[in-house]
Amino acid sequence: MAGAQLTATASSIATASFEGLRPSALQFPSRVRIPNLSQTPFRGLVVKAAAVVAPKFTAIKPLGDRVLIKIKEVEEKTNSGILLPPTAQTKPQGGEVVAVGEGKTIGTAKVDISVQTGAQVVYSKYAGTEVEFNGTKHLIVKDDDIVGILETDDIKDLKPLNDRVLIKIAVAEEKTAGGLYLTEATKEKPSIGTVAAVGPGPLDEEGNRKPLSVSPGNTVLYSKYAGNDFKGKDGSEYITLRVSDVMAVLS
User: Fold this and answer.
1) Which residues, including other chains, have CB under 8 Å from residue 95's CB and lie 6 or more apart?
2) Taking CA 97 as the corner, what is the angle to CA 92 and CA 68, rounded to the nearest 5 degrees?
3) How distant, in Å, are the alpha carbons of 24, 35, 37, 79 from that of 32?
4) Which is nearest to 189 in space by CA: 237, 231, 241?
5) Could you tell me which of 211, 205, 212 has the C-alpha nearest to residue 110?
């Protein structure tokens, strides 16, 4: 009996809810016209990777604490001479300083740019604005986005700037705690390494350098996803990061 009443109630609700809908009240177009996309002009959607400076301009003068860097060419071959496809070519993170700004003011102190024209530098991976000038790609970055000076082709020789630290990453564990060998895909990326070099320290409000809290030779624990990764000539892995990303000194 209760089941019959429930059925009757549900039926009456459904009838009442849709009673006002008549087939003639809902009209749909018989055809939907789709424009021919091949004939639609998209000339306004032109995207360029770098801002192009017209040939009539012969010089770029960075302002403030900005630096103009000529980007190092992308490596098209491996060390053994194998050509790399465009998808395998890594974005360069280094180049030559071609012009610098006048510096910046911190508190009451005037601070010069930390690099000079002609220096070979490494900069943060996603820093700056790319500019095509005289047919060559350049980058305008802030002085603080320059990681360090690198006068050789080996990252182990990097001289960090400001509050940056160069760390040689510890080798990943080959086995689990139970003795099982790990594949390359399952090896945990270590966040422990040995400090290889440190910068002179950040500037205080009077323009003086504050020494860093770590020293070369320290074994440190750092934030897992911080900094920029590099590989040395001997295959060793390095990372550059700010000293604030170093969490502890191990002993």
Assistant:
1) 69, 70, 71, 72, 120, 121, 123, 138, 139
2) 85
3) 20, 10, 15, 58
4) 237
5) 205
101 and 113 Cβ atoms separated by less than 8 Å: yes
* CA pair distance 103, 213, nearest whole angstrom: 26
- 3-state secondary structure (DSSP) of residue 194: strand
> HSE on the CB side for 9, CA within 13 Å?
6
What pairs with residue 167 in β-bridges? 195, 239
Tell me which residue of 68, 167, 79 sits closest to 121, measured CA to CA: 68
Structure tokens at 49: 């990777």
Give dist(CA 226, CA 247) in Å, integer.
Answer: 11
- pLDDT tens for 15-50 read 444 444 455 444 545 555 555 544 544 444 444 457
What does each C-alpha distance from 71 to 1, 133, 172 come to in angstroms? Answer: 84, 11, 32
Structure-token pair, residue 204: 């205080």
Q: Of 247, 250, 243, nearest to 217 (Cα)?
A: 250
Q: What is the pLDDT of residues 51-77, one digit of tens each?
A: 888 888 888 999 999 999 999 876 655
